[in-house]
Amino acid sequence: MWGFGTLELAILFGGVCFAVLVTLRRGLAFGMAAVVVVLVVVVPMRFRDRYGRHVWQAVLGRVAWRLGRARGQGLYVSGPLARVGYGTCRLPGLAAGIEALDALDGLGRPFALLWHRATDEATVVIETAADGAALLDDSEVDDRVATWGTWLAGLSYVAGLVGASVTVEAAPGTGARLRREVQSHLVPDAPAFALEVMAGIVDSYPTGSASISCRVALTWSMAGRLGRRARGIEEMAVDIGHQLPHLTRSLAGTGAGPGRPMGVGELAAAIRVAYEPGTHAWVEDGGDLDHTVAWHDCGPRHQQEHRGHLVHDGACSITWEMGQAPRGLVLSSVLAPVLRPHPKLARKRVTLLYRPHDPATSAAVVERDFRNVAFTKTNEKGLGAATRLALEQARATADEEARGAGLTRFAMLVTATVGDESQLEEAAGLVEELGLSARMALRRCWGTQGASFSAALPLGIVLASHLAVPEFVRELA
Question: What domain range includes position 214?
Answer without folding.
Answer: 73-173+208-357+406-471
